[in-house]
Design brief:
Blueprint lengths: L2 H22 L5 H6 L6 H12 L2 H14 L4 H25 L4 H8 L3 H33 L4 H51 L4 H18 L14 H16 L2 H4 L8 H40 L7 H7 L14 H7 L5 H8 L4 H39 L5 H24 L5 H25 L5 H22 L1 H4 L20 H18 L5 H10 L5
Helix pairs in contact: 1-8, 1-16, 3-8, 3-12, 3-16, 4-7, 4-12, 4-16, 4-18, 5-10, 5-12, 6-7, 6-18, 7-8, 7-16, 7-17, 7-18, 7-19, 8-9, 8-12, 8-16, 8-17, 9-12, 10-18, 12-15, 15-16, 16-17, 18-19, 18-21, 19-21
Length: 547
């Protein structure tokens, strides 16, 4: 069968499974809708957390960025994995001890303020919509190439599937669907990597095969007039490498859709074990990604070295050119720089099996894996948006007396609204999938990380400080990123309004917003009345999560 036929089969089977699981996991209570009844087993929650965490950015785009950036691309590996360790060890057990449904719930209780809850809910919406835009763009990329349907239609199909199991089952439906999606995406990611490692080196372990491929890749880049793949700081300055890594770490620890996963387990012990399982499951993909990046770059450059300008006639180039994600210049591809400029980073993982001439079924499997990664994260983000609007704003502020049935109805309605907005953002993204996701991490770092850390470890932090800190951090980071990416969001704008802020680019500027948040929150808290005694006692109890 052709690649398209195999893709229809694999995508059809996996999507049918997701819909079935979502239907079987439907819920009738707000506790089931928002935190899956707090009865998810640790290992299942670990797999669901991994799927929630390993988005289209991790599956589709990360290896592409590492492939093109070389050493500098390690910021994504260091930032995202380091951030998860930070979250698992520093924050997750304490947040579970608080026992709330959402991050704005935590903020509202810890800072004894509905205004703080609303600011946190608005921040959650900003972060989640920015993040989900990258996921829906990833869905469109996969559908557009392998099923040969318009990008916009691919996004629409993804929206319908996510809406179905998210609306019916809420967190419970999303959780068990994500367990299945993790199995699909990790199988789809590792099988081609193992196959290509065998073809190139005879070693079936991609992580070990890198040792043999790296010198060859450095050599072929040198022969083609490119800088060595392993040379540091060729695309990013030291300052930006540090800023982006720290931004991704702090953003990870503040991501509302990941934090809420620790509320779905039975107790603090289960939260710790689910963090362990998630880190293990995440590590499988994150240690494979650099190998996939090197394999892809080596194959592409080797073909160019052999074929020269005729590489543009290769079937994989023509197939991706039809989607608009490979742009062949009018004069053809004459240099390696032109070749790399012609290729969108988001296609690397999806295109590598084709480039390596693997069987069609493997190519289709990768497409199904990319869709699983995008949909799993999109569903978690949509629930965060729904909970922020329905639970934290409507149910806690606007209509606290609303019945259980009414709250559930509003929650489901908000998911429908969020799906529509997410689809529009997916069709008009701010950049590459991983870039868009990095912006979301910057917003999370600038808004949530300080308020959570100080809320757990500093009893003096109060509501005035939290509101001021979150507001300053979020507004500064959002406005700065918008100015740096103005050409993507303002019609007719050909270049950014702002190139950098104090030497830091858009992907790392969240660090500055985070530092502003910390400074403002500490300063305002010290200049205003202390937290109530009951809140200080609550913080003291939460510091000992095993009790």
């Amino acid at each position: 069968m052709s690649i398209q036929a195999w893709t229809w089969v694999t995508v059809g089977v996996t999507f049918a499974a997701y819909l079935y699981i979502g239907y079987r996991s439907r819920v009738r209570s707000t506790k089931g809708f928002y935190v899956a009844g707090q009865g998810v087993p640790a290992i299942a929650n670990g797999a669901a957390t991994a799927a929630d965490w390993m988005s289209a950015a991790s599956f589709i785009s990360m290896a592409g960025l590492i492939s093109f950036m070389g050493f500098d691309g390690a910021v994504y590996l260091m930032g995202w994995t380091g951030g998860y360790v930070l979250l698992a060890l520093l924050l997750a057990p304490f947040l579970r001890k608080f026992g709330q449904y959402t991050v704005p719930d935590f903020v509202g209780v810890r800072y004894y303020s509905q205004a703080a809850r609303v600011v946190a809910a608005i921040a959650a919406i900003f972060v989640s919509f920015t993040y989900v835009a990258g996921q829906m763009a990833g869905v469109g990329v996969a559908f557009g190439r392998f099923l040969e349907i318009p990008f916009e239609l691919g996004v629409a199909i993804g929206m319908v599937v996510v809406a179905f199991f998210a609306v019916l089952g809420g967190m419970k439906g999303i959780t068990y669907t994500q367990v299945a999606q993790y199995c699909v995406l990790i199988f789809a990611y590792t099988v081609p990597a193992i196959a290509i490692a065998l073809l190139l080196t005879g070693n079936p372990v991609p992580q070990l095969a890198m040792e043999e491929i790296l010198p060859k890749l450095n050599a072929i880049q040198h022969d083609l007039g490119l800088s060595s793949y392993s040379n540091p700081f060729t695309g990013l300055s030291k300052l930006n490498v540090f800023a982006i890594t720290l931004c991704l770490m702090a953003g990870t620890a503040g991501l509302p859709h990941v934090i809420v996963r620790f509320y779905t387990v039975k107790n603090v012990k289960a939260a710790r074990w689910s963090a362990f399982w998630a880190l293990l499951f995440i590590g499988i993909l994150y240690t494979t990604a650099p190998a996939v990046a090197m394999f892809a770059k080596y194959h592409i450059l080797q073909q160019f070295a052999e074929l020269g300008p005729a590489i543009a006639e290769q079937s994989w180039m023509q197939n991706w050119a039809a989607t608009g994600l490979v742009t062949i210049p009018e004069g053809g591809i004459q240099t390696a720089d032109q070749l790399l400029e012609a290729i969108n980073r988001d296609i690397i993982v999806l295109a590598t099996p084709e480039i390596a001439r693997l069987p069609a079924v493997v190519v289709a499997l990768v497409a199904a894996g990319g869709l699983a990664a995008a949909l799993s994260t999109a569903s978690g983000l949509l629930l965060v948006i729904s909970s922020a609007l329905a639970h934290d704003i409507y149910g806690s502020v606007i209509n606290p007396q609303a019945s259980e049935k009414r709250r559930l109805f509003v929650g489901r309605a908000m998911i429908f609204l969020a799906v529509v907005v997410a689809g529009v953002l997916g069709v008009y993204p701010l950049g590459f999938v991983a870039e868009v996701v990095a912006f979301a991490f910057g917003l999370a770092a600038a808004s949530f990380f300080p308020v959570i850390v100080l809320g757990i470890f500093w009893k003096r932090a109060n509501k005035q400080g939290a509101i001021a800190g979150m507001s300053i951090g979020l507004v500064f980071t959002f406005v700065t990123i918008a100015l740096m990416r103005a050409q993507n969001v303002i019609p007719g704008m050909d270049e950014p309004v702002l190139d950098h802020f104090l030497g830091v680019g858009a992907q790392g500027v969240g660090v500055i917003g985070m530092l502003l948040n910390f400074a403002v929150m500490i300063g305002v808290s010290l200049c205003t009345p202390d937290s109530p005694l009951s809140v200080r006692e609550l913080v003291e109890r939460v510091r000992y999560p095993n009790e």
